[in-house]
Amino acid sequence: MRSHRGPPNESGLAAAEIEPRNQTVPPTEKIRRVLVVEDVASQQKLLVTVLKKAGHVVASADNGQDGIDLFRREAFDIVLMDVQMPGMSGLEAMRAIRAEEAGTRNHVAIVAVTAHALAGDAEQCLAAGADAYLRKPIRLAELMSLVKRLTEPVG
Amino acid sequence: MTPTSTTARLPAAETARAGRILIVDDRPEKLLALEAALAILGREMVKATSGREALRCLLQHDFAVVVLDIQMPLMDGFETARLIRQRRRNADTPIIFITSYGEEMHALHEYPLGPVDFMLAPLIPEVLCSKVGVFLELYERTAEVREQARRLLLRTQQLQGLARASLKIHAAQSIDDTLRFAAEAARSVLGSRCGAAAVMPSPNGLRQVQFVVSPSQAGAPAAQGSLKTSLPALVAGLSKPARFALADQESLSLSALFPATLLATTGLIAPLVGRDGNNMGLLVAAGKRDGEFSDDEESLLVQLAQMTATAVENTLFAEARESNRIKDEFLATLSHELRTPLSSILGWAQLLRTQMLDAEETAEALDIIERNAEIQCNLIEELLDVSRIVTGKIQLHMQSVVLDGVIRAAVDVMRPAAQAKQVAVDLALSASGARIQGDADRLQQIFWNLLSNAVKFTPPGGHVRATLEAEGEKALVIVEDDGEGIALEFLPYVFDRFRQADSSTSRRHGGLGIGLAVVRHLVELHGGAVRAESEGRGRGTKIIVTLPLAQPPHEASPDQTPPDGSAGLVRELQNRSADGHAGAGSVPKNVVCGV
C-alpha cells in the first residue's frame, strides 16, 4: 500500500488527472532521471515535454541501439521504451538492458510503450523485461502515475 | 464319320483371339473335303490352291496352323514350307503336311522346318481335327497370354502414371496448377487425346477455372470462351462417372471444350467430389487413342478425380489460412498505424489543456496535432480506397487526360517531402502531349503513390526518376529509384493487398501496405498493366505502368475490337472487375500443349 503524500490539490501531473493549471514543478514530486526511447519525433517530444514539465530529468533516443548506448553511459530511474522502431526494436533493447543487469542487483524500471494492441503484445513486452505496459494513445495521467509508482521504493 | 467328338475339345471361338486355318491343296475337291472335316472347329478357314497363293495369304493374315498338301505342281509342299519359314513372322507357324506316300516323310530331314506334323491320306477327320485343334489351342492360349501381358503392362504403366500424377497434383501450389496437372494426367494416363478439368465458383472461395489440354495438331486453341452457363448445372447433376459421345454434348456445352476433330469420339467424365459430398467440378478425358475406354480406365479417372478434389480442397484451405494470416497481420499494422498519430494528437491535446506550454510550444503542439490528424486522414482515405476496391465501388470519371500534366502534378505534390529527405526527383517526359482516356484524379493518385513509395524507400542522397514514353499504342510510365529495392522472393507479391515485405517490430517504414495494391487496381481499371522490377535488396526498384493511349480523334471509331479478340477479352475482364466481379470471371483459361 503506497501512501499518497501531500494534499490532493497539489498533486499536479502525478494525480489521476491533469489539472488545467499552470504548474511547472509539483512540489511533492520527486525528481527522476527518465530515458525516453521513441522513433516518432512528435511522440518523443510529447513524452520529453510532459516529463520535463513535471520536473524530471529527461534524455531521449531515436532507436533501441542509441537507447542502450545512453543507458550504459548514464544512470536512469526509469525507461520509457517504444516497441516498434527501425533497426533495434524496443523488445530487443529491453532484453539487452536486462542482460546488462544480469548478475547485478540493478533493476531499472521499464515501461513498454506500444501502438500494437493485439492479444499477446503485452505478454511479449513483459517477457522481454518490461515492468509495465502502456498502450498508445497514451493517457498522460496514466503515464505520470506509472512513473511515480514504478520509481517509488516499495513500502 | 461323326465329328461331334471334336466339338467338346475346343471352346467356342472368341472372336478377338480365334486362330485362322490355312488349307493348301492344288485339287479343289480335296480342299472342300478338308474344309468340311475342319468346319466342326468353328474357325475361319482360308483356302489356297498353290504354294504361291498360300504365301500371299500368309502375307495378309496371321494363321494358327497351315494344312499343306505335299504333292503340288510348280511348287511342292516342302518348297512352300521352306519359303514360309523364311519369313520371320511365320518361323514358328505350325504346318501339318498331308501326303499319300509315307516314304516322303524321309524328305523332311532335308528341311529345317520347325514345328511340323505329318498325316497320311486318306485322312481320318477326327484325327485331323484333333491335330489342328491342338495347334489352334496353343495359338489361342499364346495370344491370350500375350494379351494379358499387354494389359498388365498397360495397367502398370497407368498406375505408375497415376502415382506420378498424384505427386504432381498434390505438390501443386495453386488451384490453376492442380487443374492443369489433372487435365494433363487425364490425357496422358488414360491414353486419350484431350483432357479437361474444371471447378465451379463456390461459396468456399472457389472461382471458376478450367483447363483443357489437347494435342497441338488438333488445331486452334480449344474452346475460346466456351463454357456456357449449363456447365455448372452439369457439374451439379453429375453423381457418378459417365461415358458420353462428344457429339451429343452440345446441349451440355462439354463438346465446346474440345477441338472439333474429337467430335466423333467418346469421352469419360468424373465429378470432383468435395469433402462435403458436393460436386465442385469435373474431370474429362476425351478421344481415346485406340479402342474404347475400359472399366479400369474409368476407375483410374475416378481416382484421378478424387485426388484432384482433395488437392483443390487442400489448396483452398491453405489459401484461406494464408489470407487469414495476412489479414491478421494487416489488422495489427492498421491498429499500429492508426494509434501512432492518435497518440500524438491526444497527448498534445492533453498537454495543451494543462496550460503549461508557452506560446512557442503551443504553436508547435497545434502543428503536431494538425499534421498527425492529416496523416490519419490519409490513412483512412487509403483504407476507404481498399474498401471500394474490394466491393468494386470505385467510379472513374473518364475524360481525355494529358499524361505528362498528371505526372507533373503528382511530382509537385511529392517534391517537398523528397526535398526534406534529400532525395532528387528527375522527370523525363518524352511523350509530352500523349493523351489517354482516364480519371485525372485517380491517375494522379497512381503516380503520387508510386513516387511517394519511391521516395520512402530511397535513402537521403538517392534519386527518383519518372519517365514517360510512347510505345506503339501504349504509354509507358516508369518510376524508378536507386533505393532499397525489393527482395526477389517478395517481388511476386508487391501488388497484393495487405502485403508488406517487413511487418516486424523493427521495420523501418510505416504504412498500411496497400498503396501498390491500389495502384494496380486503378491501373487495371484504366485498361493498363503494372509490373515491378528489382534486382534485389539494395539495388533499386523500377515500376512500369503501361496505359492504352487514346486514339487520335479522326481515326477513332467508337468500338474498336482487335482482330483476334484477345485484347477485347482482357478489356472485358477489366470491365468486369470494374463492375465488382473481380475474380469471379467465367472466362476460361486454356492451355494447349503438344503431345
Write the layout of secondary structure elements.
The complex is a heterodimer of chains A (155) and B (595).
Chain A: E1 33-37, H1 41-53, E2 57-61, H2 64-73, E3 78-82, H3 90-101, E4 109-114, H4 121-128, E5 132-135, H5 140-151
Helix pairs in contact in A: 2-3
Chain B: H1 4-7, E1 21-24, H2 28-38, E2 45-48, H3 51-60, E3 65-69, H4 77-86, E4 95-99, E5 116-120, H5 125-171, H6 175-188, E6 192-199, E7 209-213, H7 230-237, E8 242-245, E9 266-273, E10 279-288, H8 295-353, H9 359-391, E11 399-402, H10 403-420, E12 424-429, E13 435-438, H11 440-456, E14 463-471, E15 474-481, H12 515-525, E16 529-533, E17 541-548, H13 566-578
Parallel strand pairs in B: 1-2, 1-3, 3-4, 4-5, 12-14
Antiparallel strand pairs in B: 6-7, 6-10, 8-9, 9-10, 11-13, 14-15, 15-17, 16-17
Helix pairs in contact in B: 3-4, 5-6, 5-8, 6-8, 8-9, 9-12, 10-11, 11-12
Walk me through what this model shows.
The complex is a heterodimer of chains A (155) and B (595). Chain A has 155 residues and is of the alpha/beta class. Chain A has one domain: Rossmann fold, CATH 3.40.50. Chain A has helices at 41-53, 64-73, 90-101, 121-128, 140-151; strands at 33-37, 57-61, 78-82, 109-114, 132-135. A 5-stranded parallel beta sheet of chain A has the order 2-1-3-4-5, sandwiched between helices. In chain A, helix 2 (64-73) runs parallel beside helix 3 (90-101). The model of chain A is unreliable at 1-25 (pLDDT under 50). Chain B folds into 4 domains: 4-146, Response regulator (Rossmann fold, 3-Layer(aba) Sandwich); 165-317, GAF domain (Beta-Lactamase, 2-Layer Sandwich); 324-384, Signal transduction histidine kinase, dimerisation/phosphotransfer (DHp) domain (Helix Hairpins), CATH 1.10.287.130; 399-553 and 566-578, Heat Shock Protein 90 (2-Layer Sandwich), CATH 3.30.565.10. In chain B, 43% of the residues lie in helices and 17% in strands. Chain B contains 13 helices and 17 strands. In chain B, strands 2-1-3-4-5 form a 5-stranded parallel beta sheet, with helices on both faces. In chain B, helix 5 (125-171) packs parallel to helix 8 (295-353), helix 6 (175-188) runs antiparallel to helix 8 (295-353) and helix 11 packs antiparallel against helix 12. Chain B is rod-shaped and about 140 Å long. The two termini of chain B are 60 Å apart. The relative contact order of chain B is 0.07. The interface between A and B is large, with 39 and 33 residues.
